[in-house]
């Protein structure tokens, strides 16, 4: 009798679960009662959550719906659907749950995971004053070039000492954080600074700890704090304590030395805005979270993009040689500068092809439907998490023909000019595209082009195969740590 009742209760739960899917909700996997698809995400594609969404795209079409726990999630794939989603004002919200708030100590702060008027105010202020401090200007170019020179000198010394074997694991992130920190706090660190190395390791661990799909699970914050290892796939934001402390100390130091006249950097500018007390959305806590957003996203994504570029060039030495010949012809004995970039057609094509095949953000940061809308013939309810699958466009066979092949020439027309395409958007699109796109593009170009001009990158002698290009999964994708054999050109 008890067994019969349990069976009836189970089937009742299943029936209720099926019936709770909203009318005209997009087709997709049903999942389990209460848990939805939380446990089945890894089964969609082993090793990479974002590839699981590709499997759903092939099975259910460009608009696919499922649940992570009680949270409705819609995945949008394919060029037309992704483009429409990027431009839809009603999809400009950000998820608001405990995993998202953990980054900001339980509050909605920063610029990455907030929305509404608060987001617009903070975004405008941040972009405006970063531009005034050199963002996108010649001074930013000089700042990045200085960090490139420090990096190259360090690598040259290692080779002169007879060590041609390099391990690449967060190798470029120190230089990238220095470029950002100069703009934010007017300071830089030595490459061997132990605290900076720790912060970069923490960023890497946090970014690799979760995935964009399962983070939708609305787990109470108290449970995440009590059992961080058990809920690790929602993101190990608890590991950011040392980063928070580092940023707080920098802000406190600036408060003690705040100039009365011209601001030295972004922290000064923001502190002066707090003193004005015109808008209460400005606070030291918000400043700390803006810095956290810029530092974490800026260093991780660009550093891994450079790593993926070197991996592809190790796999394709003939492409590396062709790129080096162009760099020699255009730049001569000098390092690449922005004024060289229009002439470096093949170099640009290589960088674009790396972003297409090994984009560090295959999925855009999740969005939230601000109201119930009709999209692609289906209904997306208010507060649904929406994931835009950019990888589906970058690997679209109908547009790229042979997307699985690394072929930079596809980005160059018959007249030798770069093809401008809207089928490649590594930084997202619409109003919620990447805040640091200008700096990221510039850093990616300078570092990669300079490294390839100065050194030849090869597999370690005696290795059976080149290092793996397969990514490490996470909130963003990272390249696997690898060894390479370097010689100075």
Automatic annotation (TrEMBL):
Its cofactor is heme. GO terms for biological process: organic acid metabolic process; xenobiotic metabolic process. Keywords: Heme, Iron, Metal-binding, Monooxygenase, Oxidoreductase, Signal. GO terms for cellular component: cytoplasm. InterPro entries: Cyt_P450, Cyt_P450_CS, Cyt_P450_E_grp-I, Cyt_P450_sf, Cytochrome_P450_fam2. One of its GO terms (molecular function) is heme binding. PROSITE patterns: CYTOCHROME_P450 (PS00086). The keyword Transmembrane helix does not apply. The keyword Iron applies. Residues 1-22 form the signal peptide. Heme binds at residue 434. Belongs to the cytochrome P450 family. This is Cytochrome P450 305a1. It comes from Daphnia sinensis.
């Amino acid at each position: 009798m008890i067994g019969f009742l349990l069976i009836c209760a189970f089937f009742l739960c299943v029936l209720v679960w099926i019936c709770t899917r909203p009318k005209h909700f997009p087709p997709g996997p049903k999942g389990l009662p209460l848990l939805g698809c939380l446990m089945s995400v890894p089964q969609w594609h082993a090793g990479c959550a974002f590839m699981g969404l590709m499997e759903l795209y092939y099975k259910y079409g460009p608009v696919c719906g499922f649940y992570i726990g009680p949270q409705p999630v819609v995945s949008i794939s394919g060029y037309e659907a992704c483009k429409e989603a990027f431009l839809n004002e009603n999809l400009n919200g950000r998820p608001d749950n405990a995993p998202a708030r953990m980054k900001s100590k339980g509050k909605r702060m920063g610029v990455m995971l907030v929305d509404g008027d608060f987001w617009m105010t903070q975004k405008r202020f941040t972009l405006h004053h970063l531009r005034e401090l050199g963002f996108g200007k010649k001074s930013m170019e000089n700042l990045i070039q200085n960090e490139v020179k420090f990096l190259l000198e360090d690598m040259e010394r290692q080779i002169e000492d007879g060590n041609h074997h390099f391990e690449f694991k967060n190798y470029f992130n120190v230089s990238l954080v220095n470029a950002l920190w100069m703009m934010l706090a007017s300071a830089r660190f030595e490459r061997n600074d132990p605290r900076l190395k720790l912060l970069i390791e923490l960023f890497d661990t946090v970014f690799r700890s979760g995935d964009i799909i399962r983070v939708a699970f609305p787990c109470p914050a108290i449970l995440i704090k009590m059992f961080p290892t058990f809920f690790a796939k929602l993101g190990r934001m608890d590991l950011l304590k040392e980063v928070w402390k580092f940023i707080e100390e920098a802000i406190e130091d600036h408060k003690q030395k705040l100039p009365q006249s011209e601001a030295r950097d972004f922290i000064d500018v923001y502190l002066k805005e707090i003193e004005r007390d015109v808008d209460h959305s400005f606070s030291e806590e918000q400043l700390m979270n803006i810095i956290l957003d810029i530092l974490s996203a800026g260093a991780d994504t660009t550093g891994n993009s450079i790593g993926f570029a070197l991996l592809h060039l190790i796999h394709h030495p003939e492409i590396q040689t062709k790129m080096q010949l162009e760099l020699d012809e255009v730049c001569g004995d000098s390092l690449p500068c922005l004024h060289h970039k229009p002439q470096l057609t093949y170099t640009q094509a290589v960088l674009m092809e790396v972003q297409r095949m090994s984009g560090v953000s295959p999925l855009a940061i999740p969005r939230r439907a601000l109201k119930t809308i009709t999209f692609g013939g289906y209904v997306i309810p208010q507060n649904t998490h929406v994931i835009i699958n950019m990888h589906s466009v970058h690997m679209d066979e109908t547009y790229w023909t042979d997307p699985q092949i690394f072929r930079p020439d596809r980005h160059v027309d018959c007249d030798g000019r770069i093809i401008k395409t809207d089928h490649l958007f590594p930084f997202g699109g619409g109003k919620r595209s990447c805040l640091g796109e200008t700096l990221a593009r510039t850093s990616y170009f300078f570092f990669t082009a300079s490294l390839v001009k100065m050194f030849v990158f090869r597999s370690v002698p005696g290795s059976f195969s080149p290092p793996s290009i397969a990514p490490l999964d996470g909130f963003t994708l990272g390249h696997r740590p690898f060894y390479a054999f370097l010689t100075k050109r």
